[in-house]
Design a protein that fits this description.
The complex is a heterodimer of chains A (about 260) and B (about 375).
Chain A: E1 4-15, E2 18-29, E3 33-38, H1 44-51, E4 59-65, E5 71-72, E6 84-87, H2 99-110, H3 115-128, H4 145-156, E7 163-167, H5 175-192, E8 195-199, H6 203-209, E9 212-217, E10 220-225, H7 227-232, H8 236-243, H9 245-258
Parallel strand pairs in A: 3-8, 3-9, 6-7, 7-8
Antiparallel strand pairs in A: 1-2, 1-4, 4-5, 9-10
Helix pairs in contact in A: 2-3, 2-4, 3-4, 5-6, 8-9
Chain B: E1 7-12, E2 15-24, H1 29-44, E3 50-61, H2 63-78, E4 82-85, H3 90-100, H4 114-152, H5 159-169, H6 174-196, H7 203-243, H8 246-252, H9 257-294, H10 300-310, H11 313-339, H12 345-376
Helix pairs in contact in B: 1-2, 2-3, 4-9, 4-11, 5-9, 6-7, 6-9, 7-9, 7-10, 7-11, 7-12, 9-11, 11-12
The chains are: A alpha/beta (about 260), B alpha/beta (about 375).
């Protein structure tokens, strides 16, 4: 068994009186796409933000492991942040920079390379996510929702991170674009050898591209595994999510392919 | 010359072989780029047509390495060599294929020549100036129309919103306006006593303070303060509403944003400015009197009786007549700029700055026009 890339133990996070994550344990396996699902407000985004160090934790440990099992935490990270790529829900592109400058931002900060190579790399990333080089000089306010997501993905991939965090990558996209986006993530994940931590509500994405699914409810992971294993879970939330009207559709499709 | 770490050249049976080795990843991108460039220079002197690339000792490849490899290949191909790339691992090949398809066309570049850019900027600036005047006229028309609909149907006037605006821009501005005008009145009087004293003309300081404050300083100071305080607030408010599509939402509900948001704001500004100007002028006169008493040794009784002789109702009227027009101009500029805000946070900041600068400019221009007008009618 391979070592997980992130190891979360007994994580507690809360705001004031409310405890959002209550002694949560989760391993994120290397080189796989992990889909995190759960009801609205169950703490999926909080979990991601805590891993990224944007929200302080009350107790527990989050370890990042390299392939040689060397442990590190965000507090003594070294170069960890360079290994992260994050796609925020609304893109979070810097509105005063052009698309090209947005993608180059981290290259400028962390790599010592010439402008020519930087331009070429940024254009390459832009084309990887399916945009045209002519979009390079646009500003974020001139982009449509789908383009914003693509540019944000290109920016997240700027430094070839090992670990990609996606917060609802397909929300707000039409089903065709969402499907393309899923395929794109899958291709990039395979060819770049990424580990992807993906928060999603999109049942199609869960079914199409996730290697592993973690279900968050009541502040903890109530089920984790491949989709078939999750479907067997008898947790009431999992049941209503996957066997409900919308989930049932995917469930039926899954059964068809199994047969 | 440093020893090549990632790329070495050898010859075998008249064929040139490039050996790739080590980790071709982003951390070493700078070194990799230098080595590939160096390699191209070296190969130019070699007289062979085919180059084989040996990838057997390549340890790791990411998008940076893949692109540099692809660039090397393209550069050599354009120089007339035939490049044969060795086998890559399955994942690396997939990555290489992805990168292979990129950078085939260059993005359209923006204008770079500085002189042309300067001319283009000047042209754009003059066009913008013309468009600005047009959009102010447009806004003036829109609020006049909106005013007529309200006169026809007074019930549709937004009383609550108006009172709220009046509280914000008039009542809450009173302390700061009083303080600033009081100080400026005092400063004018002090300067008067200091310089007129040399000529023995202390009595005329009162004339100067009275006329200057009532005709010009009171209204100008108040208008500039209001432009900075309330004008910027209007632009920012309307701008953020525009950004979050609130104004579009209003329109789809069948409401005219001019009636709901802009008319109450501009009307209240027209009402607030005379009130603030009156208060400001009084405070400035008070400040002048205070300084005359403490610094110039002139008793309040003398100051007041001299003031009665020096100023007439005309002076007071000149200041007060200007006030509502100043309010209108500030409101027009602030609201027009607010509605011009586009999607980004930067544009909001830009428009707010523009709004304040333009409003202050317009206020001063208007004041100059009024000065010419009053001089020609002999006031």
């Amino acid at each position: 068994m391979q070592t997980p890339i992130i190891e979360i133990k007994d994580l507690v996070v809360g705001f004031g009186e409310t405890i959002v994550l209550d002694h949560l344990n989760l391993d994120v396996e290397r080189g796989k796409i992990l889909g995190v699902v759960g009801g609205s407000g169950c703490g999926k985004s909080v979990l991601m933000r805590t891993i990224l160090g944007l929200i302080p934790k009350r107790a527990g440990t989050i370890h990042f492991l390299s392939e040689d099992k060397k442990q590190s935490t965000l507090e003594n990270h070294g170069a960890i942040e360079q290994k992260f790529g994050v796609l925020f829900q609304r893109g979070a592109l810097f509105s005063s920079l052009t698309v090209l400058q947005n993608i180059q931002f981290q290259m400028r900060e962390h790599l010592d390379i010439k402008k020519k190579l930087m331009d070429e790399m940024a254009i390459a990333k832009l084309e990887l996510v399916g945009l045209s080089p002519n979009d390079a000089n646009k500003y974020p306010s001139e982009l449509s929702g789908g383009m914003t997501k693509r540019v944000a993905l290109a920016r997240a991939l700027a430094l070839d991170p090992e670990l990609l965090f996606l917060d609802e990558p397909t929300s707000g996209l039409d089903p065709i674009s969402a499907g393309e986006f899923d395929a794109l993530i899958r291709t990039l994940q395979k060819s770049l050898g990424l580990t992807v931590f993906m928060i999603t509500h999109d049942l199609e994405s869960l079914y199409e591209i996730c290697d592993c699914i973690a279900v968050l409810a009541e502040g903890d992971v109530v089920a984790k595994g491949e989709i078939q294993e999750i479907l067997k879970s008898d947790h009431p939330w999992v049941q209503s999510y996957f066997a409900g009207k919308r989930g049932g559709y995917v469930f039926n499709r899954l059964n068809e392919t199994v047969e | 010359m440093s020893e090549a770490q990632f790329l070495s050249i050898s010859k075998k049976d008249g064929e040139t072989i490039l050996h790739l080795s080590g980790e071709w990843i982003s951390n070493y991108a700078s070194t990799l780029e230098n080595e590939t460039n160096l390699c191209i220079d070296k190969i130019e002197n070699i007289k062979s047509t085919t180059i084989a690339v040996n990838t057997s000792s390549l340890e790791k490849l990411d998008t940076y390495g893949a692109w540099l490899l692809e660039r090397l290949k393209r550069d050599l191909t354009t120089k007339g060599f035939e490049v044969k790339l060795g086998d890559l691992s399955k994942d690396d090949q997939a990555l290489f294929n992805l990168i292979n398809a990129t950078n085939k066309q260059k993005p359209k570049s923006a204008i770079t020549q500085s002189l042309i850019r300067l001319i283009a900027q000047t042209k754009n600036l003059s066009i913008t100036f013309g468009k600005d005047l047009l959009s102010f006229a447009n806004m003036l028309g829109a609020i006049t129309l909106s005013l007529f609909t309200i006169i026809k149907n007074p019930k549709s006037f937004r009383l609550t919103s108006s009172v709220h605006q009046l509280d914000k821009i008039c009542w809450q501005a009173v302390p700061i306006i009083l303080l600033i005008t009081l100080l400026i009145g005092g400063i004018i009087a002090q300067q008067g006593f200091f310089h007129f004293g040399k000529l023995g003309a202390e009595l005329y300081v009162v004339d100067m303070v009275g006329i200057l404050v009532l005709r010009e300083v009171g209204i100008l100071l108040v208008a500039i303060m209001v432009a900075g305080r309330s004008g910027s607030a209007y632009t920012a408010e309307l701008g953020s509403m525009k950004m979050r599509e609130e104004i579009d939402a209003l329109q789809t509900m069948g409401l005219n944003p001019i009636d709901v948001l802009i008319l109450p704001r501009i009307l209240m500004l027209i009402i607030a400015l005379p009130i603030l100007t009156f208060l400001g002028s009084m405070a400035a006169l008070y400040g002048g009197g205070l300084v005359a008493w403490i610094y110039g040794g002139m008793t309040p009784e003398i100051f007041i009786s001299r003031l009665k002789e020096a100023i007439s109702l005309t002076h007071f009227q000149v200041g007060m007549i200007k006030a509502p027009f100043m309010g209108l101009v500030i409101g027009l500029v602030a609201c027009t700029e607010g509605l011009k805000v586009k999607g980004s946070a930067e544009s909001l900041g830009q428009q707010t700055t523009k709004s304040v600068v333009k409003a202050i400019f317009m206020v001063i221009v208007l004041d100059g026009l009024f000065a010419i007008f009053f001089a020609s009618i002999g006031w």
